[in-house]
Amino acid sequence: MGNSALKAHLETAQKTGVFQLTGKGLTEFPEDLQKLTSNLRTIDLSNNKIEILPPLIGKFSLLKSLALNNNKLTALPEELCKLKKLETLHLNGNHLRQLPAAFGQLAALKTLSLSGNQLRTVPTQLSGLRHLDVVDLSKNQIQNVPDTVRELQAIELNLNQNQITQISVQISYCPRLKVLRLEENCLELSMLPQSILSDSQISLLAVEGNLFEIKNLRELEGYDKYMERFTATKKKFA
């Protein structure tokens, strides 16, 4: 992509607060963006070949939305965690194995998409995020859901297409969790905590494609209670 094209994009971004440059084969984060650290509210650099997100990302103090889907990121800089206004972070289809230690400082974060990475566990850093609504961790290499999940504030947690064999009973105590997606994992019925059915707030539990038949789920104690919540929620949205 020529300099003049980039210049035009930068001029538009200065006026609109939005910088979108997708599918252009970029191998690095455009350095010229640092002229706009106090303008940009949205950056979308999806479908490129970016391998490194530079520390200067921490300077975009007004940034609300950052999308870097389908790039080649293997790690994220700690500086990313300085983005106090960031509400939406889309990092699907990269090569991430973990999140920065300070990730819990992204206090405004509402939506986090990490589908199609190389995470092996549900990151404990997510527990500190008080405004989190939707977390997508589908298509990773997660094998178990640890006790720390109890602190997760999300309304929806998507763990479809992982390798999960174990789930902590603590997931039943997530204060806001309404939707739990566990499709296409390696769960035996005995490994699904019954308290999810009997004692949680969860009103949509998606478990198709595991190592048990759905009809057997219906025989578990607590299933009636779950169905009451499921039906009540359906009515609300009908």
TrEMBL record:
Domain of life from the UniProt record: Eukaryota
Family matches, as Pfam families: LRR_1, LRR_8
Any one GO CC term of the record: cytoplasm
Key words, A-Z: Leucine-rich repeat, Repeat
InterPro entries: Leu-rich_rpt, Leu-rich_rpt_typical-subtyp, LRR_dom_sf, LRR_domain-containing
Matching SUPFAM superfamilies: L domain-like
PANTHER family per the UniProt record, alphabetical: LEUCINE-RICH REPEAT-CONTAINING PROTEIN 57, PTHR48051
Official protein name in the record: Leucine-rich repeat-containing protein 57
Lineage: Eukaryota, Metazoa, Chordata, Craniata, Vertebrata
Gene name of the encoded protein: Lrrc57
